[in-house]
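>> received
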Amino acid sequence: MHGKDDSTSLFYSGNAATYAAALSDASLKRLDAFLAGLSAGATILELGCGSGRDSAVMIARGFDVLPTDGILEMASEASSRLSIPVPVLRFEDIDKVSAFDGIWANACLLHVPRSELGGILQKIHTALRPGGVFYASFKAGETEGHDTFGRFFNYPSRDWLQLKYEALPWKSITMEEQSGSAYDRKPTEWLHVTAVKS
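>> returned
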């Protein structure tokens, strides 16, 4: 999450247990595809791990996973679920270099202000090893704003997001659109992006 938008941080810190319970099942279709691009035992950084549900699946499958979240209360929820320490890591504090084979960022980078997303993508790119796989999902839209819970979203269009990714040296960028829902139960157009580092 992002410190500059307090309403988003307050939502997740104040509703950590409820939010973690509501989203108890891993998004296996996307997760399976992501893991298929990695070798056995690969090192994975999860950003915005929330309840820890996705990390739980990856750990169970034998991957070397570092789950993180930008909100202390969410990290605590994940730590309880996974029975391992889950560090608090804000996107702007990612500072690793060629440290991970994969980075999984399911429905979390959508809270980064548009003006800062390019810099965060750069940090993620730097943290990946050559050939590393990066997955992220975004709620599509035309202009950034807040939802009914007061959470901030960057709501990118497909073209805008594509340009942000193309500013970095990826070997491939795959973007899929999908209709779905989320915590607010409202119809949502999702953008799922998988990028492989050159």
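>> The mean pLDDT is 91.
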